[in-house]
């Protein structure tokens, strides 16, 4: 009897998760304003991935920042 309750609960949870994931894919942006906001967010994310990668952060020339002043 306990196995039936356990598997019933797990099946119900799986069904709720599947329905939730399917509903997310149905809610896509359709307005021009929403598409523009999504495009700007994508472009900003791509810019940030390039600007803040390991090469850009660790191989930058020293500047007049406080961290550089303390090292001298």
Please write out the topology.
Blueprint: H1 2-26, H2 32-51, H3 54-58, H4 66-71
Features:
mainly alpha, 72 residues, 4 helices
Residue share in β-strands: under 5%
First-to-last CA distance: 74 Å
Total number of β-strand segments? 0
What's the helical proportion of residues?
A: over 70%
Order of helices and strands: HHHH
How much is the radius of gyration in Å?
25 Å
Q: Judging from the principal axes of the Cα atoms, what is the shape?
A: elongated
Q: Give the overall average pLDDT.
A: 77
Judged by helices, strands and strand pairing, the structural class is mainly alpha
Q: Main beta sheet, described?
A: none
User: What's the helix count?
Assistant: 4
Low-confidence stretches are none
* Oligomerization: single chain
